[in-house]
Write a structure and sequence with these properties.
With 183 residues, the chain is of the alpha+beta class. The protein is 18% helix and 42% strand.
Amino acid sequence: MSDHNKNKVNIMGICKGAHYITYCLIIIIIVSMLAAVVCAGKNFAVFKIREHFSGDIVYQRMVRVGDEFTLHYVHSVTKRPVDEVFKIDNRHELALVEMRYDSFGANLPVGSELLSGEKTDFIVEKDFYRISYQNRKFDVVPLRVGQVIADHAVKFADGPKVRLLDITQGGEYIELYVEPLIN
């Protein structure tokens, strides 16, 4: 046998019998795992906070579509806490679900409102007022980070509270938004 024939790999020999079945199973498993990763990625997004003017990302985390987070701050006039609850509506949008506060003040609703064709629900709870929104969606939530009183923070149920003054400067114009994990 010539040296040339000794170095040839017999592909047909590899693709016979038990080896053939093993290789086919490995290929099926790899393709299935890749498909699962792609499909699962459709239910995930990346929540980001960026500084508007520089475009710098100052915070990001992976989230599931349907997850909620709370934007917590102290109202500048009433000096009382306000919570705005947002939901990851889809991989491109945030939805404002509700607002909670315990004292009326400037720019805080005192009853149901009709805004952009959407009627809000005004609910009086034992210790606070709650505004419920049905269809308030945002590509980007703009925010000026409070310098003195507000002490803005973002809190996800499964994570630590992120104080905005710890990741950017007071007075900074920032944007909260989500992007698809996988396009």
